[in-house]
Specification:
By secondary structure, this protein is mostly beta strands. It has helices spanning 160-164, 204-207, 322-328; strands at residues 25-28, 88-89, 125-128, 132-137, 146-153, 169-170, 174-179, 191-192, 200-201, 216-220, 223-224, 235-237, 279-280, 285-286, 332-339, 346-355, 361-372. The two termini are 24 Å apart.
Protein backbone atom coordinates (compact mmCIF):
# COMPACT_ATOMS: atom_id res chain seq x y z
CA UNK A 1 0.00 0.00 0.00
CA UNK A 2 1.43 3.36 -1.04
CA UNK A 3 -1.44 5.70 -0.08
CA UNK A 4 -2.08 6.44 2.70
CA UNK A 5 1.65 6.04 3.42
CA UNK A 6 2.20 2.61 4.89
CA UNK A 7 3.75 1.64 8.19
CA UNK A 8 6.44 -0.08 6.12
CA UNK A 9 7.60 3.29 4.76
CA UNK A 10 6.02 2.77 1.34
CA UNK A 11 4.41 5.81 -0.30
CA UNK A 12 3.41 6.93 -3.78
CA UNK A 13 6.94 8.25 -4.31
CA UNK A 14 8.39 4.75 -3.84
CA UNK A 15 5.75 2.79 -5.75
CA UNK A 16 7.09 -0.15 -7.75
CA UNK A 17 10.41 -0.78 -5.99
CA UNK A 18 9.46 -2.51 -2.70
CA UNK A 19 11.02 0.13 -0.40
CA UNK A 20 12.15 -1.13 3.02
CA UNK A 21 10.87 -4.61 2.10
CA UNK A 22 7.31 -3.26 1.93
CA UNK A 23 6.26 -6.04 -0.46
CA UNK A 24 7.35 -8.80 1.94
CA UNK A 25 4.30 -8.73 4.25
CA UNK A 26 1.71 -11.33 3.28
CA UNK A 27 -0.19 -14.51 4.17
CA UNK A 28 0.96 -17.76 2.56
CA UNK A 29 -0.94 -20.94 1.54
CA UNK A 30 -4.45 -19.50 1.96
CA UNK A 31 -7.40 -20.80 -0.08
CA UNK A 32 -11.13 -20.13 -0.17
CA UNK A 33 -13.24 -21.44 2.70
CA UNK A 34 -10.42 -22.80 4.85
CA UNK A 35 -10.35 -21.91 8.57
CA UNK A 36 -6.66 -20.93 8.48
CA UNK A 37 -3.71 -20.51 6.14
CA UNK A 38 -1.15 -23.27 5.79
CA UNK A 39 1.87 -20.97 6.06
CA UNK A 40 5.24 -21.51 4.40
CA UNK A 41 5.46 -25.23 5.17
CA UNK A 42 1.76 -26.09 5.44
CA UNK A 43 -1.00 -27.25 3.14
CA UNK A 44 -3.09 -24.63 1.34
CA UNK A 45 -6.20 -26.79 0.98
CA UNK A 46 -8.57 -28.08 3.66
CA UNK A 47 -10.59 -31.01 2.34
CA UNK A 48 -14.30 -31.01 3.18
CA UNK A 49 -14.10 -27.45 4.56
CA UNK A 50 -12.96 -26.11 1.20
CA UNK A 51 -15.12 -23.40 -0.35
CA UNK A 52 -16.20 -23.00 -3.95
CA UNK A 53 -15.32 -20.29 -6.47
CA UNK A 54 -17.83 -17.46 -6.89
CA UNK A 55 -15.88 -15.19 -9.24
CA UNK A 56 -17.55 -14.40 -12.59
CA UNK A 57 -15.41 -15.05 -15.65
CA UNK A 58 -15.16 -11.37 -16.62
CA UNK A 59 -13.33 -10.66 -13.34
CA UNK A 60 -10.70 -13.37 -13.86
CA UNK A 61 -7.04 -12.38 -14.20
CA UNK A 62 -5.12 -15.68 -14.61
CA UNK A 63 -5.46 -18.97 -16.50
CA UNK A 64 -8.43 -17.66 -18.45
CA UNK A 65 -8.28 -20.71 -20.73
CA UNK A 66 -9.38 -22.81 -17.73
CA UNK A 67 -13.12 -22.90 -17.09
CA UNK A 68 -12.57 -23.47 -13.36
CA UNK A 69 -11.10 -20.56 -11.42
CA UNK A 70 -9.72 -22.86 -8.75
CA UNK A 71 -9.22 -22.36 -5.02
CA UNK A 72 -6.88 -19.39 -4.74
CA UNK A 73 -8.16 -16.35 -2.80
CA UNK A 74 -9.44 -14.17 -5.66
CA UNK A 75 -11.72 -16.98 -6.86
CA UNK A 76 -14.07 -16.03 -3.99
CA UNK A 77 -12.95 -12.56 -2.81
CA UNK A 78 -12.58 -12.23 0.95
CA UNK A 79 -13.45 -15.87 1.74
CA UNK A 80 -9.89 -17.04 2.39
CA UNK A 81 -8.36 -16.72 5.86
CA UNK A 82 -5.38 -14.50 6.58
CA UNK A 83 -2.52 -14.98 9.00
CA UNK A 84 -2.76 -11.33 10.10
CA UNK A 85 -4.80 -8.41 8.71
CA UNK A 86 -1.61 -6.38 8.21
CA UNK A 87 0.42 -9.30 6.83
CA UNK A 88 3.27 -11.38 8.20
CA UNK A 89 6.93 -10.70 7.45
CA UNK A 90 8.14 -13.14 4.77
CA UNK A 91 4.77 -14.90 4.88
CA UNK A 92 5.65 -17.11 7.83
CA UNK A 93 8.07 -17.88 10.64
CA UNK A 94 10.59 -19.93 8.63
CA UNK A 95 12.54 -19.34 5.44
CA UNK A 96 10.70 -20.61 2.37
CA UNK A 97 11.63 -21.19 -1.26
CA UNK A 98 12.18 -18.36 -3.72
CA UNK A 99 9.06 -16.19 -3.95
CA UNK A 100 7.37 -17.98 -1.04
CA UNK A 101 8.87 -16.33 2.01
CA UNK A 102 12.53 -16.51 1.13
CA UNK A 103 13.16 -12.85 1.95
CA UNK A 104 12.40 -10.96 5.15
CA UNK A 105 12.07 -7.17 5.46
CA UNK A 106 15.10 -5.25 6.79
CA UNK A 107 15.00 -4.99 10.58
CA UNK A 108 12.45 -7.80 11.05
CA UNK A 109 12.74 -11.54 11.56
CA UNK A 110 10.55 -14.15 9.86
CA UNK A 111 6.96 -14.34 11.05
CA UNK A 112 6.55 -10.90 12.67
CA UNK A 113 2.90 -9.84 12.65
CA UNK A 114 2.08 -6.71 10.68
CA UNK A 115 -0.18 -5.50 13.48
CA UNK A 116 2.98 -5.31 15.62
CA UNK A 117 5.00 -3.43 12.98
CA UNK A 118 6.57 -0.10 13.86
CA UNK A 119 5.09 2.84 11.95
CA UNK A 120 7.76 3.96 9.50
CA UNK A 121 5.64 6.49 7.62
CA UNK A 122 6.90 10.06 7.93
CA UNK A 123 3.68 11.50 6.50
CA UNK A 124 0.28 11.20 8.17
CA UNK A 125 -3.14 11.52 6.57
CA UNK A 126 -6.20 13.15 8.14
CA UNK A 127 -9.49 12.14 6.50
CA UNK A 128 -12.86 13.89 6.81
CA UNK A 129 -16.08 11.92 7.14
CA UNK A 130 -17.95 11.98 3.84
CA UNK A 131 -15.05 12.96 1.59
CA UNK A 132 -13.54 10.91 -1.23
CA UNK A 133 -9.86 10.21 -0.54
CA UNK A 134 -7.02 8.60 -2.49
CA UNK A 135 -5.90 5.06 -1.72
CA UNK A 136 -3.26 3.23 -3.74
CA UNK A 137 -1.00 0.21 -3.99
CA UNK A 138 2.03 -0.72 -6.09
CA UNK A 139 2.60 -3.96 -7.99
CA UNK A 140 5.95 -5.66 -7.38
CA UNK A 141 5.01 -9.28 -8.10
CA UNK A 142 1.90 -9.44 -10.26
CA UNK A 143 -0.16 -12.40 -9.08
CA UNK A 144 -3.38 -11.03 -10.56
CA UNK A 145 -6.55 -11.05 -8.44
CA UNK A 146 -8.10 -8.03 -6.77
CA UNK A 147 -8.24 -5.96 -3.62
CA UNK A 148 -10.13 -4.08 -0.97
CA UNK A 149 -9.38 -1.42 1.67
CA UNK A 150 -10.86 -1.77 5.18
CA UNK A 151 -10.97 0.23 8.42
CA UNK A 152 -10.65 -0.60 12.14
CA UNK A 153 -10.35 1.71 15.16
CA UNK A 154 -6.77 1.84 16.40
CA UNK A 155 -7.83 1.27 20.02
CA UNK A 156 -9.71 -1.93 19.05
CA UNK A 157 -8.24 -5.41 18.67
CA UNK A 158 -6.64 -5.44 15.22
CA UNK A 159 -8.33 -8.58 13.91
CA UNK A 160 -9.56 -9.54 10.46
CA UNK A 161 -13.09 -9.52 11.89
CA UNK A 162 -12.68 -5.89 12.95
CA UNK A 163 -11.50 -4.82 9.50
CA UNK A 164 -14.25 -6.80 7.78
CA UNK A 165 -16.88 -4.80 9.68
CA UNK A 166 -15.92 -1.61 7.80
CA UNK A 167 -14.91 -2.21 4.18
CA UNK A 168 -14.37 1.11 2.43
CA UNK A 169 -16.65 1.91 -0.51
CA UNK A 170 -15.00 2.69 -3.83
CA UNK A 171 -16.10 5.90 -5.51
CA UNK A 172 -16.96 5.88 -9.22
CA UNK A 173 -16.06 3.58 -12.08
CA UNK A 174 -12.60 4.97 -12.78
CA UNK A 175 -9.20 4.46 -11.24
CA UNK A 176 -5.81 5.95 -12.01
CA UNK A 177 -2.24 4.95 -12.72
CA UNK A 178 -0.16 7.34 -10.59
CA UNK A 179 3.35 7.69 -12.02
CA UNK A 180 6.32 8.68 -9.86
CA UNK A 181 9.99 8.90 -10.79
CA UNK A 182 12.13 5.88 -9.90
CA UNK A 183 15.31 7.82 -10.64
CA UNK A 184 17.65 9.27 -8.00
CA UNK A 185 16.45 6.91 -5.27
CA UNK A 186 18.70 6.93 -2.20
CA UNK A 187 17.79 3.74 -0.36
CA UNK A 188 20.40 1.18 0.77
CA UNK A 189 19.10 -2.40 0.73
CA UNK A 190 19.30 -2.80 4.53
CA UNK A 191 17.75 0.55 5.45
CA UNK A 192 14.58 1.10 7.46
CA UNK A 193 12.67 4.39 7.88
CA UNK A 194 13.69 4.74 11.51
CA UNK A 195 16.91 2.71 11.88
CA UNK A 196 15.00 -0.13 13.57
CA UNK A 197 17.06 -3.05 14.94
CA UNK A 198 20.42 -1.55 14.01
CA UNK A 199 19.60 -0.88 10.36
CA UNK A 200 20.50 2.32 8.57
CA UNK A 201 17.96 5.11 9.11
CA UNK A 202 16.68 6.60 5.84
CA UNK A 203 13.24 8.32 6.13
CA UNK A 204 11.00 8.07 3.03
CA UNK A 205 11.16 11.84 2.46
CA UNK A 206 14.95 11.51 2.09
CA UNK A 207 14.94 8.30 0.07
CA UNK A 208 12.71 9.30 -2.84
CA UNK A 209 12.30 12.37 -5.05
CA UNK A 210 9.03 14.24 -4.60
CA UNK A 211 6.21 12.75 -6.67
CA UNK A 212 4.22 14.87 -9.13
CA UNK A 213 0.67 13.95 -8.08
CA UNK A 214 -0.76 15.43 -11.27
CA UNK A 215 1.08 12.81 -13.33
CA UNK A 216 -1.72 10.26 -13.34
CA UNK A 217 -3.64 8.42 -16.07
CA UNK A 218 -7.34 7.52 -15.83
CA UNK A 219 -8.36 3.95 -16.69
CA UNK A 220 -11.69 2.10 -16.24
CA UNK A 221 -12.12 0.10 -13.03
CA UNK A 222 -13.71 -3.34 -12.83
CA UNK A 223 -15.54 -3.77 -9.51
CA UNK A 224 -17.46 -6.67 -7.95
CA UNK A 225 -19.93 -6.82 -5.06
CA UNK A 226 -21.63 -10.20 -5.61
CA UNK A 227 -20.21 -13.38 -4.07
CA UNK A 228 -17.82 -11.38 -1.91
CA UNK A 229 -16.94 -11.39 1.80
CA UNK A 230 -18.10 -9.32 3.66
CA UNK A 231 -21.38 -9.96 1.90
CA UNK A 232 -22.19 -7.16 -0.54
CA UNK A 233 -18.83 -5.42 -0.08
CA UNK A 234 -17.07 -4.18 -3.20
CA UNK A 235 -13.72 -5.43 -4.46
CA UNK A 236 -11.75 -4.12 -7.44
CA UNK A 237 -9.87 -6.20 -9.99
CA UNK A 238 -6.14 -5.63 -10.36
CA UNK A 239 -6.09 -3.87 -13.76
CA UNK A 240 -2.50 -4.81 -14.66
CA UNK A 241 -2.27 -8.18 -16.47
CA UNK A 242 0.60 -10.60 -15.97
CA UNK A 243 2.39 -12.24 -18.89
CA UNK A 244 0.45 -14.91 -20.74
CA UNK A 245 2.12 -18.02 -19.32
CA UNK A 246 1.81 -20.13 -16.19
CA UNK A 247 4.50 -18.10 -14.41
CA UNK A 248 2.94 -14.78 -15.41
CA UNK A 249 6.39 -13.32 -16.04
CA UNK A 250 8.00 -14.35 -12.77
CA UNK A 251 11.58 -15.62 -13.01
CA UNK A 252 11.87 -13.37 -16.09
CA UNK A 253 9.80 -15.84 -18.12
CA UNK A 254 7.82 -14.36 -21.00
CA UNK A 255 6.99 -10.87 -22.36
CA UNK A 256 10.64 -9.90 -22.03
CA UNK A 257 11.60 -6.25 -21.69
CA UNK A 258 14.84 -4.31 -21.53
CA UNK A 259 15.94 -0.73 -21.04
CA UNK A 260 18.10 -1.23 -24.13
CA UNK A 261 16.00 -0.12 -27.09
CA UNK A 262 15.44 -2.87 -29.66
CA UNK A 263 16.82 -5.73 -27.56
CA UNK A 264 13.41 -7.45 -27.59
CA UNK A 265 10.25 -6.92 -29.65
CA UNK A 266 7.78 -4.75 -27.73
CA UNK A 267 5.20 -7.10 -26.10
CA UNK A 268 1.78 -6.84 -27.74
CA UNK A 269 -1.61 -7.24 -26.04
CA UNK A 270 -1.77 -10.97 -26.83
CA UNK A 271 1.34 -11.55 -24.70
CA UNK A 272 -0.63 -10.85 -21.49
CA UNK A 273 -3.26 -12.70 -19.45
CA UNK A 274 -5.87 -10.17 -20.60
CA UNK A 275 -5.78 -6.95 -22.60
CA UNK A 276 -3.84 -4.19 -20.80
CA UNK A 277 -5.93 -1.09 -19.94
CA UNK A 278 -3.66 1.24 -21.89
CA UNK A 279 -0.09 2.33 -22.48
CA UNK A 280 2.51 2.67 -19.74
CA UNK A 281 3.29 6.34 -20.25
CA UNK A 282 6.68 6.11 -18.53
CA UNK A 283 8.12 2.87 -19.93
CA UNK A 284 6.77 3.16 -23.48
CA UNK A 285 5.13 -0.27 -23.16
CA UNK A 286 1.65 -1.58 -22.46
CA UNK A 287 0.43 -1.58 -18.83
CA UNK A 288 1.27 -5.20 -18.17
CA UNK A 289 3.89 -7.65 -16.95
CA UNK A 290 5.06 -9.06 -13.64
CA UNK A 291 6.85 -6.05 -12.19
CA UNK A 292 10.16 -5.84 -10.39
CA UNK A 293 9.52 -9.22 -8.76
CA UNK A 294 10.37 -10.83 -12.10
CA UNK A 295 14.00 -10.19 -11.20
CA UNK A 296 13.70 -10.30 -7.43
CA UNK A 297 12.19 -13.62 -6.33
CA UNK A 298 15.58 -15.22 -6.79
CA UNK A 299 17.65 -12.04 -6.41
CA UNK A 300 18.46 -12.86 -10.00
CA UNK A 301 20.27 -9.66 -10.86
CA UNK A 302 22.32 -9.72 -7.66
CA UNK A 303 23.41 -13.31 -7.00
CA UNK A 304 22.71 -15.31 -3.80
CA UNK A 305 20.09 -17.42 -5.58
CA UNK A 306 18.19 -20.10 -3.60
CA UNK A 307 18.73 -23.69 -4.84
CA UNK A 308 15.37 -23.99 -6.62
CA UNK A 309 15.99 -21.00 -8.90
CA UNK A 310 17.47 -23.28 -11.57
CA UNK A 311 14.02 -24.82 -12.17
CA UNK A 312 12.90 -21.71 -14.01
CA UNK A 313 14.30 -18.90 -16.07
CA UNK A 314 14.33 -17.19 -19.41
CA UNK A 315 15.40 -19.57 -22.18
CA UNK A 316 17.19 -21.79 -19.70
CA UNK A 317 18.71 -18.94 -17.69
CA UNK A 318 17.64 -18.04 -14.16
CA UNK A 319 18.67 -14.40 -14.06
CA UNK A 320 17.87 -10.93 -15.32
CA UNK A 321 20.58 -8.75 -16.74
CA UNK A 322 20.82 -5.21 -15.37
CA UNK A 323 19.00 -3.74 -18.37
CA UNK A 324 16.18 -6.30 -18.02
CA UNK A 325 15.83 -5.66 -14.30
CA UNK A 326 15.64 -1.90 -14.86
CA UNK A 327 12.79 -2.31 -17.36
CA UNK A 328 10.71 -4.69 -15.22
CA UNK A 329 9.92 -2.23 -12.43
CA UNK A 330 6.54 -0.52 -12.64
CA UNK A 331 7.04 3.23 -12.00
CA UNK A 332 3.50 3.65 -10.74
CA UNK A 333 0.81 2.88 -8.18
CA UNK A 334 -2.77 1.86 -8.91
CA UNK A 335 -4.96 4.54 -7.31
CA UNK A 336 -8.67 4.55 -6.41
CA UNK A 337 -11.00 6.89 -4.56
CA UNK A 338 -12.84 5.61 -1.48
CA UNK A 339 -15.52 7.24 0.66
CA UNK A 340 -14.62 8.01 4.28
CA UNK A 341 -17.50 6.41 6.24
CA UNK A 342 -19.60 8.07 8.93
CA UNK A 343 -17.62 6.80 11.91
CA UNK A 344 -16.74 8.50 15.22
CA UNK A 345 -13.74 10.81 15.03
CA UNK A 346 -10.49 9.26 16.17
CA UNK A 347 -7.45 7.24 15.20
CA UNK A 348 -7.94 4.39 12.73
CA UNK A 349 -5.96 1.74 10.88
CA UNK A 350 -6.46 1.15 7.16
CA UNK A 351 -5.84 -2.42 6.01
CA UNK A 352 -5.11 -3.19 2.36
CA UNK A 353 -5.94 -6.76 1.31
CA UNK A 354 -4.95 -8.10 -2.14
CA UNK A 355 -6.36 -11.57 -2.85
CA UNK A 356 -4.28 -13.33 -5.52
CA UNK A 357 -5.54 -15.57 -8.32
CA UNK A 358 -2.23 -16.99 -9.55
CA UNK A 359 -1.07 -18.14 -6.10
CA UNK A 360 -2.56 -19.05 -2.69
CA UNK A 361 -1.30 -15.77 -1.26
CA UNK A 362 -2.84 -12.61 0.21
CA UNK A 363 -0.66 -9.49 0.19
CA UNK A 364 -1.37 -7.07 3.01
CA UNK A 365 -0.33 -3.79 4.53
CA UNK A 366 -1.61 -1.29 7.10
CA UNK A 367 -1.55 2.49 7.44
CA UNK A 368 -2.54 4.79 10.29
CA UNK A 369 -4.93 7.70 9.69
CA UNK A 370 -6.87 10.25 11.72
CA UNK A 371 -10.58 10.65 10.90
CA UNK A 372 -12.35 13.90 11.80
CA UNK A 373 -15.96 15.08 11.46
CA UNK A 374 -17.02 16.34 8.04
CA UNK A 375 -17.38 19.92 9.20
CA UNK A 376 -13.91 20.06 10.76
CA UNK A 377 -11.50 22.67 9.37
CA UNK A 378 -8.04 21.18 8.82
Amino acid sequence: MTEPPSRTGASLAGGGVCPYGACLWFSQSCTIGCPECGGIEGNATCGEQQGAATLPREMRTYYLKNDDCGLNPWCAPGSSPVMNPCGVSAGGDVQGSAGNGNDKPPGYDYGVLGTDMRNGADEHRTWKVGEAVDVAFAVIANHGGGYQYRLCRKDADQTEECFQRTPLKFVGDDQWVQYCSLENINLPADATPDGFNGTQRVPPSEAFPKCDLSNRQKIPAKRLSVGTIPEGSTWTRNPIPGCDNVLGGSYNFGCHVSSIEGKYPTPTADKFQFAPPGDDLERGLLLGGFGGGACGGCNQAFGNNPPDCDKYGKLGRNNCTEDEAAAQYFPFSVLDKVLVPDVPAGEYVVSFRWDCEQTPQIWQQCSDVTIVAGDTVV
